[in-house]
Write a structure and sequence with these properties.
Blueprint: E1 2-6, E2 12-16, H1 19-30, E3 37-38, E4 42-43, H2 47-58, E5 61-62, E6 67-68, E7 76-82, E8 85-91, H3 104-111, E9 116-120, H4 121-125, H5 129-144, E10 148-152, H6 163-174, E11 179-180, H7 184-191, H8 196-204, E12 210-213, E13 220-223, E14 228-231, H9 245-258, H10 263-277
Parallel strand pairs: 1-7, 3-5, 4-6, 9-10, 10-11, 11-12
Antiparallel strand pairs: 1-2, 7-8, 12-13, 13-14
This protein binds 2-keto-3-deoxygluconate.
Transmembrane segments: 106-127
Organism: Devosia oryziradicis
Domain Carbohydrate kinase PfkB: 8-283
């Protein structure tokens, strides 16, 4: 998506971002050169779609499978800060990404041979019901072929027809995944979770192997059938713009796990990277700032 961040005196900075793209960005920044990171979405033929492709390629994120949808353009969102948190206003009803799952063959080709496939609740929210089915079908096939499936439920009520539909679709999708990375404060009002442990328990009961519950400035809980690890972020991080905090945590966490790190080490890396991201405007920070 096109991202407009900043906004003081109505001056905005144009960037490219979006939750799954943000996670791909941080995975690319943190994984060694022997890994490849590919991004799958829909883009149009307009100048901004072309610029997004060029931006990804310049940053070593593969674009080979991206669908070109003639006549469509990227979605756009603006960020504003209010009551200590970031808020988004969207222009995406006719975005090319909404049609990313219209071609079954393209979907299967995009995930074939991957070690890990990552998607989110926003990916599902923007798709029509039948397209959601096609996407999940491709994901199940990739999993059967050996890919680990990682999923951030990333609740965005504004993108769903009702809370009931959102809860049902996200729960069904999570049950197909190996690693689920929800945010407790988003999930609590929808599912009635009273603690991070209850959020984790709900996904473990679905058969998810590794549940990574983020809780903003609180402790993250990493839960498996045999292990529970709570990891607090280092205090004192200054919040300029929290956009991309969860996505960057996910990117750092998943990169660490792929590199063989423990649950605790991966969560510590997640907090460290998210701590840098919230100190900058917009979702993507220069990889040089990540240390
Ligand atoms: O909200 C969305 O659809 C976005 O992808 C915009 C932001 O980059 C994302 O929400 C941050 O998690």
């Amino acid at each position: 998506m096109i991202e407009m961040s900043g906004g003081e005196d109505r001056q905005y900075r144009l960037g490219y971002a979006g939750d799954t793209l943000n996670t791909a960005w941080y995975m690319r920044a943190l994984l060694g050169k022997d890994w490849s990171v590919d991004y799958f979405t829909g883009l149009g033929e307009d100048r901004y779609s072309g610029d997004i492709r060029a931006f990804l390629e310049a940053n070593n994120i593969g674009t080979d499978h991206i669908r070109t949808v003639p006549g469509r353009r990227p979605g756009l969102y603006m960020i504003h800060q209010e009551k200590g948190d970031r808020h988004f206003t969207y222009w995406r009803d006719t975005s090319a990404a909404k049609l990313l799952a219209d071609d079954k063959g393209a979907l299967h080709a995009a995930v074939a041979g991957a070690s890990m496939v990552y998607f989110s609740g926003i990916t599902l929210a923007i798709l029509a019901p039948r397209a959601r089915g096609r996407l999940l079908g491709a994901i199940v096939k990739a999993r059967d072929a050996g890919a680990r499936i990682a999923f951030d439920t990333n609740l965005r009520p504004a993108l769903w027809t009702s809370p009931r539909v959102m809860a049902g679709v996200l729960t069904a999708a999570a049950s197909l995944c190996d690693i689920v990375l929800p945010t407790h404060t988003d999930e609590a009002p929808l599912f009635g979770d009273k603690s991070v442990d209850e959020t984790a328990e709900r996904y473990l009961e679905l058969g998810v192997e590794e549940v990574v519950v983020k809780d903003g400035a609180g402790e993250a809980l990493i839960a498996t059938a045999s292990e529970r690890v709570k990891v607090a972020p280092k205090p004192g991080a200054k919040v300029v713009d929290a956009t991309g905090a969860g996505d960057s945590f996910n990117g750092a966490y998943l990169s660490s796990r792929l590199a063989g790190k423990s649950l605790r080490e991966a969560a510590e890396e997640g907090h460290r990277v998210a701590g840098v991201v919230i100190g900058q405007k917009g979702a993507l920070v220069d990889p040089k700032l990540l240390g």
